[in-house]
## 1
Amino acid sequence: MSKVLSLLAGLALALLVLAGCGDDDPSSATGAGTVSTAAGAAFPVTITHRYGSTEIERAPERIVTVGLVEQDALLALGITPVATTEWFGDRPGAIFPWAKDEQGDAPDPTVLKSPTGAVQFEKIAALRPDLILALYADLKKTDYDKLSRIAPVVVAPKQYVPYGIPWQDVTTIVGRAVGRPAQAAELVDGVEQQLADAKAAHPEFAGRRGLVATYFEGKPYVYGPQDPRGRLLTTLGFSLPDGLQEYVGTEFGRDLSEERADLLDVDAITWLVASDKDRQVIRDRPTYRRLPVRQKGREVFLDETTTLGQAASFISVLSIPYLLDELVPQLSTAVERE
């Protein structure tokens, strides 16, 4: 797995990715990805993005997700893709528990496995897709051009850093691409209302500083304002540390130097960890032990091998409702510790 994918996942789920229980046989997804002809009236549709624009002439029936979270938006819209790209978690079809109900009886998608992060061109072509989604991704222009010879490709708008597109945009763009924009808008409105309700129910978050971080290659790694995890905190009422945007620059996050350990000193920090050992290593770091956030226990540790830990990285229209139920109470407890 590439360093970027490891950091996106929060850390060391590479072994789970390599273990792989998804089926790479394109025939295993036969029947998945069917889109109702009721969407036909929405076509053709043109979607503008980082590399120009893509015209989709008719309702797609065989959708491949090269991006890492788009399957959730599709499933929420009642569509199962023929293939997904595995990020972490080793789940059949790369479909997580919070999305299984939406899948219903549809067959599991073929899982495209790429430990290095390389696009699986031959496997994708063999699936005969009529739409390729690469929104939550870092698809290079050369790869976009190659994929476009296979099927129409939709990537993120140019204003977002790679892996920085908000879940709302993922949902609405996917909705347009499959001819279901009104349904997508309703889904976004519903989840945004849940977020607003959670914020209103927890006024203790207002004015408090929050942060999401992980531990990678022997040092902390912090997720910035353009990362969906950081955006989730600000949506709930938290502010991010002063100087975080300047520190991470144009990336979704950055390794944290010892000299900037002050960025960890917030009112509630969420750590994504791979094991209890990593948790202890973090808590024992001299620069971290001196910080009030550590001394007062204003920490939430999420195990990346659990559904909650995985939902905390996925940040989608389907994972957020689950995350609100499970994570928000822990954040509330953390900020109240004195």
## 2
Amino acid sequence: MTGIMDDGSADTPDGAGSADPVGCAKREQILKGAGTVFLANGYEGASMSQIAQMAGVSKGTLYNHFNGKASLFSAFFEEQARSRLAPIEALSRSDGQSVRVTLVRFAEMTVHLLVSPMALGLYRIIVGEVDKFPNLADTFWRYGFDRTLGNLTEYLTRSVARGELEIADPRLSAEQFMLMCQARIIQRRRFGLPVDDSDAAIAEFAAFTADSFLKIYEPRHQ
């Protein structure tokens, strides 16, 4: 899996497949400390010494698990994406409810996720430092956006096969819907602008977004 080297080249996160319980626990301890440092100092401003201190491990232990800051950030981002996207991925794999209900829930979950402090912090790191470290974008795309895009594309493809939607390009339409979900609330939160992000406001926005999408792609005979 592609990560980011300090010089911008590809790298692979270390220790991801370890079956040793002690090693796995230590790795999680390191990732937790790394997250605190990255969110506080950004990618460029974070150092392996700071991360080792925050994680409560020696630099030797840190380098036993990760060969550099790049692989560590990539592993941290992947872990956050894996755990936080799991409910959205489960929803995208489920066909037990109407398309509208699924899309409304998808939009609600997306907004709640992306306005969380963790998601906002990671977004600002990547956008703010991608010019110096281009492969930050690859990490974000691979583990975040593209992962969700693939699941939603599969869901829309199944909906088309059942005659519930008329979509010529499910992947493009999935990307369209994901970007629709980022209007208003998410965009304003990313820039620190005032916006109502209460549960009620998010629910209203999610319903509007899903209905707008369905007006385009629902079969005309319905």
## 3
Amino acid sequence: MYSLAKQLAGRMKAIMDIESKMAEAERNQQGEEFVRDLEQKRSDLIKTFTSDELLVITTVMEIGQSERGYRHYFDSDDVELIYLPIELNEHELMKKYSHFLVHKTKQELADGIEYHTLVSSFLKEGMEILKI
């Protein structure tokens, strides 16, 4: 599973790239149609993945979301990332976080990626943790 994650690094970065362009377009108010086109491009890219690839991408996201600590502040929307020590190796992390995901369908995995609001940040953290 880890070797597939390494192979998918470029395609995961492509998802993050599209999401970065979407965020920039929204900040610069480039128009809803432009953002919708980018959303469609991301959706089309996600549809090209196999079930196994979607499982790996979702696992990387889960690692990025769960292997770090987060400090939330009550008086603002700021979130501070806490770099907790990681005790498992890459293969053990992939096994741990994919354990329950294997029961999801391809569509459920794809929807989880497509409709999640923090895909890029979780993918980035997961890839960093896994040294991909």
